[in-house]
Each structure stands twice: as structure tokens, then as C-alpha cells.
Amino acid sequence: MSPEPAERGAQPLRGGVGTPEKAALLFTLLPLAIYTWGACRTIYVGDSGELVTAAVTLGIPHPSGYPLYVLAGWLVTRLGNLLGLTPAHAMSLFSAATAALTVGLLHWLIERATRVRVAAVVGASLLAFSPSFWSQATIQRVYSLNALFVVASLALVWLWLQSRFPRSGDRYLIAASFVAALGATNHTAMAVVGLCLGLGCLAVEPKLWRRSGLVLRCVGAGVAGLLPYLYLPLRSRQNPRLDWGDPETLERWLEVLLRRDFWYRRWYDGPTDLVPITADWLASHAVEFYGIGAILGWLGLVVAPRYGWPRGLPALLGLGNLLALAGHGSRADLFVWHRYYIPTYVALGLLAGLGAAYLLHRGSRWWRPVLLLLPIPLIVAGWNRFDRHDYRFVEDFTRSLLATVPEGARLSAGDDVVLFALLYHHLALGERPDLELILEGGGSARPVRLAWNLEDEPIFFTHPTGPDTPGVELLPVGLLWVTVEPGEEPALRLPSRLELPQERETGIPRDYLTDNLIAHFHYMLGMTHERLDWPRAMRHWQRATEFGAEDDLLFFNLGQLFWRNGQPERALAAFRRAAEINPRHLMTPDRVEPSQRVRDLEREVTWVRNLEAELARRSGLAGPPTNAEQHRAFAAELERAGVPLLAHGHRLQAQELEAFRPAE
Which residues sit opposite 474 in a β-bridge? Predict the structure, then answer.
């Protein structure tokens, strides 16, 4: 596994910039300008709201707590405040800066290894403008900073490889241990990267483990790098407003650090699952690097020893990334988005640079201008997908929700997407200070025990997760659920908008979570109208399915509501769609499987079809009802047959047909 001496045939491009350091710095400016322009000015969907809130308030976000990101974010948001930036915009620019530095450092590393500047441009560009990397460079997430730690660790290991004989390179290995451990306090994926790099170094120099002094210094550097994790118990004892997991004791600290609350979400069930997971991982190489980049990367893996890189080291990094995610990733983590594979793409970008250098060494000089032009189509391909400077979906949704809550009310928030957005607007921006926001958390967090006086103050919920209390019902009102006495109809206070302002704008990029948020907006409005205006509810649910076409939980919930409204055919279709999207269990603690619901309902639907066919024969109909009058007549027959639920379903269908009947 020992690397061969680097190629000597090609020299770096000269001209205005001579050293690899200056070239890398200059190249950093291109992605920095693009990321800065496209940086999201408002809060983004998903974890962003919670992470930025934690940074502003010095809180503790969901496991693993991300202490380094929180502490760095606290400084960044303070600086942003001085510059007149919102916390969200400041943290988006932080992601842009760390992503650009990652690209610049990768450029430097490739040029130092190959002495071919064009190859450095190719490898760095492929990473800079790959979809997953670019998508994280303009929003408030931890992945850009994590990628910087990955490249920094790779660079230090490469310096060690070049100088380990004599042992003057030991300092690089010690520094790599520190950087990898410090990166793990930003995101635990960096711990896997550090382990893989350590195993790779041992494979290169097997006798390394016998040098006890060096091993102890590396361990000591790693422990020093992990010190930011002490922030969690120290800060938790001060009882911050955001204190996920309350990690004051060793046991709770380990629960947060090891993300125990999230392991129930994993998609992996057995060894055979590694086949589709690995196939998707491999296919993502071509998608992320536009085909040609993946070919260059695989070529680079073959020729890596020519440039001082052991083949096994970057391969081990990618394999470790794959196995770690396969072991605990959810369906969405594995198959919907690929941001967790960014360490793999960093290694692939390095290898693509090595592959490009090999072509330049062995091929025609015409390769040089062709490869230099490669960033242009990459930028054009991704610009409209990741320019988020006008993105406002989360802001519009959250402010629409807050506008419906009465003054001084108590609001219990659950589900990550909605909860995290509320955290940002309420705690970080200080909006609606009159509200009492109760944090229930997402995932498997324990529900809060609530006691209240219904006559004085109802409690609002973002999701129907309120306590099961006698004499209390939860009814949907706009984007919320409200506690009422049985039989009481709350005064409706609906959002002023019946759709989010940007949902029809084609120029605003959306992703899976954004589409799901828009779908939730319409799903809740449909739930509100379910009791009073069924046709309007159906219009909102149709809109929800247009946006949430890949949301398994949405279709499962629609299946349940169609069933309780006496429409088994629609219920079965919804459950089947949920099962098509996700043939496994839903990402819920009870791990319910839509496919099992399909099997159960198919028997019920067969019985219903036979019953309705018999009633149609008795009524003289050639088949199922086709107009409102026939549906109502059918409902009357079903009432007499003792099946009131199915009768209710036909009356609702009659309402739909009348509502959508063309004007005469």
C-alpha cells in the first residue's frame, strides 16, 4: 500500500500566480462569490432553525449537540448583528465561507500532490459545484464546516506521508488527530473520517502502533480536540431555553453524544440491505460529479500511488462513510438526499484531480483547455437549483402560523420541521414574545405533561400530540390544533393566505423538505375544512399531494382520513402510494408499515366492493354511482344496510360533484 514517488513530468502553470498557496487562494474567490450571492437570507427548512437558535441563545440543539458549530455560530451571529445581518443570513454566509475554504484547500492539496494546476482546478470545481456540496454551502447547516475538517485532515495526512522518513512528519500526524477530533465536535461523522484515516496510516506504516510515544501524543491531541463537548453538560446546568436531552449527567450526555433517540429511524434491517444502499451510493458518484467527474475519480483511484497517495486511504474514507450511514441512516438520509456522503465526495474530488493529472501527463495538450472550461457547465447546471437568496418558504409558513395564534396563548410545538422554524422566529428573532412556546421536540422525545383550564386558556398544538385527557378534544384550526370541550366548534382563525406566496414561483429552488412543508400547509387547511367544507378540503389535499409527492407520511395520513370518512378506495390508493414511496416502516417510534395497512385494507375493500355491487344491482344501476343524485341514493341504501360510515363517504362524494359541477 506504500505510495510510489510522484510524477515529475508536468510543472504547475505559471503566469500571474506562482505558488500553490496563491493559486488556491485566488480560486477560492470564485465559489465564495457564487455561494455568497446565493446564500439564504431567511431561515431554511429543517434543522437550520434549531441550529441557528442554539447559536444565538447558546443552547443545546438535537443530538449530537454540535458544540463547535454552536460556539462558532455565537461569534458569527454577533458579528452579523454588527453588520446588520439577521442570524440566518449570517450563518448562511458562514457556510459559504467554510465551503469556499474547503474548495481552496482541496485545490492546494491536489496541486501540491500532482504539480498540475489544471488538475487542481478540475478536482476542486467538481466538489465545489456538486449538487450536495453546493446545496449545503448556501444554508445554515453543519456540513460545509465538516467538509473543511475532512480536507484539512487529508492534507495533514498527505504531509505526513511525504515527510515521515525521517520522522519530522510526526507533527502532521498529531495535528491530524487533533483536527479530526475537533471536527467531530461539529459533526460526529468526522469521528468516522478520523478512524478511517488512522487505519489508513497504519496500513501504510504497520509499525506505527509500536511507537508508543507518538501514539500517546496522537491520543492526547484527539482528547484535546474533543474538549468542546464539555460545553454540553456545563451549559445544560445553566438551564438554557433550548436544552435537548438535558445532558447534565454522564448518562444523558452519552445519550446525546451517541444520538440514541434517533437510532429507531434507521432503514437498515439486515445484511441484504447493503446491496441497495451501496448501489445508490455508487450511483450518486455519477450524479454528484456529472458522470465525467466520477470517471476521473475512479481513474484517480487507480493511479493514486503515482502522486504519493495510497489507493486504500481515500477508498477507506468513502467506505467508512458508507457503512456508518448504512448502519443508522433513515430512508431519506440514504436515498433522498446525499449530504451525509459529502466526506465521500471530498475524497472523490481529490481522486478526480489525480485522474485529471494523469490524463494531462499521458494525453494531448488539448486536454488542458477542455478541463479548464469544465467549471462553466457545472456552474450553469447548478445555478438555478441552489441560488437561494430569495428563498422565504419557511419564513412565510411560520409567520402565517403565528398570525393565527391568539395573544398570550400557549403553543405546544412538535415535529422537527415546524418546531425548528418556530424556535428561530420566537427565540432568535423575538417574534410573538406574548406566546408561551412549549417545546415537545421531534422524534422520540417524551411528550410534555400539561395541565390547563379550558375556560381560561386553550392550548394550541402544531401537531395532534396533546395528552389524552377526558373531556378534551383536539380540533384543527388553520395550521394548528386547539383544545376544546366535546362538541364545541372553535371560532376559526384561518391564515390570511390560502397558499404560500412563493409556491407557484418556478425560479425559487425547492427541495424535498421544502415541498413537504408546503404540503403540510395545505394538509392542515384541508384538515380544518374536513368537517365543514369537504370539497374545499379535497382541493387542499390535492395541492398537498402535488408538492408532497414523495412524502410517505403524508399519504399514510391521507389514507387514514379517507378511511374514517367512509372512502375505502381512496384510502387504499393513498396507503399504496405510501408503500410505494417507502416499502419499509415510517420514520415514527412505532415503526408502522404502510404495506401492512395495504394488506389489511385490501380485504376490507373487497368486501365493500361486493356489498356495493349488490346494492347497485338492487337499485337498478349498471355500476357505481356517477352523479350526486346517485351517490345520495346509494347513501340511503347503505344506511338501511347498516353501514353508516360508507353512507357518509358517498354523501361527501356527492358534495364534491356538486361543488365541481360546471356552471350551466
Answer: 483
For residue 188, the number of C-alpha atoms closer than 13 Å in the C-beta half-sphere is: 13
For residues 316 and 302, the answer to whether their CB atoms sit within 8 Å is no
pLDDT tens by residue, 169-219: 899 999 999 999 999 999 999 999 999 999 999 999 888 888 989 999 999
Three-state DSSP state, 329: coil
Question: Helix or strand or coil: residue 592?
Answer: coil
**Residue 36, helix vs strand vs coil:** helix
Greatest mean pLDDT range, 184-188, 477-481, 645-649: 184-188
Cell of 175: 495535528
Q: Transcribe 373-394 into DSSP letters.
A: TTHHHHHHHHHHHH--TT--HH
Q: What pTM was estimated for this model as a whole?
A: 0.90
d(CA 272, CA 97): 40
CA dihedral 433, 434, 437, 438 (to 10 degrees): 140
Distance CA 62, CA 441 (A): 9
Do residues 221 and 174 lie in contact, with contact meaning Cβ atoms separated by under 8 Å?
yes
**Neighbouring-strand partners of residue 411:** 437, 460
* Residue recorded with cell 495510497: 310
Which of 432, 369, 429 shows the shortest CA–CA distance to 403?
A: 432
**Residue 416 and residue 49 in contact, taking contact as beta carbons nearer than 8 Å:** no
In this structure, of 17-26, 187-196, 293-302, 613-622, the range with the lowest mean pLDDT score is: 613-622
Q: H-helix or E-strand containing 473?
A: strand 473-477
Q: ∠398-246-89 over CA atoms, to 5°?
A: 35
Per the document, the length of the chain is 664
Cis peptide bond N-terminal to 64, omega within 30:
yes
Q: Do 192 and 321 form a contact (C-beta atoms < 8 A)?
A: yes
Whether the Cβ atoms of residue 656 and residue 534 lie closer than 8 Å to each other: yes
Output phi, psi for 331, to 5 deg: -55, -45
- Alpha carbon distance 391, 43 (integer Å): 9
Residue pLDDT, tens place only, 233-261: 999 999 998 999 889 999 999 989 888 77
Q: How confident is the model at residue 609 (pLDDT cuts 50, 70, 90)?
A: confident
DSSP 12: -
Buried b / exposed e along 149-174 (16+ C-beta atoms within 10 A): bbbbbbbbbbbbbeebeeeebbebbb
Query: How far apart are alpha carbons 9 and 27 in whole angstroms?
Result: 24
Strand partners, 413: 439
Do 436 and 409 contact (CB within 8 A), yes or no? yes
Question: What's the distance, CA 368 to chain centroid?
Answer: 37
Asked whether residue 21 carries a pLDDT value surpassing 70, the answer given is yes
| The pairing of beta strand 410-414 with beta strand 436-441 | parallel
Smallest Cα–Cα separation from 371: which of 116, 162, 159? 116
Give the closest residue to 549 by CA, choosing from 572, 518, 527.
518
Residue 459 bridge partners (DSSP): 410
pLDDT digits (tens, 9 = 90+) for 47-69: 999 999 999 999 999 999 999 99
Determine the 3-state secondary structure of 265 from DSSP.
Answer: helix
Helix (H, G, I), strand (E, B) or coil at 305: helix
Q: How far is CA 411 from CA 254, 408, 569, in A?
A: 30, 9, 36
Cα gap 348→295, rounded to integer Å:
10
CA distances from 407 to 423, 427, 436, 491 (A): 18, 17, 10, 15
Task: Compute the distance between CA of residue 347 and CA of residue 285 in angstroms, rounded to an integer.
Answer: 11
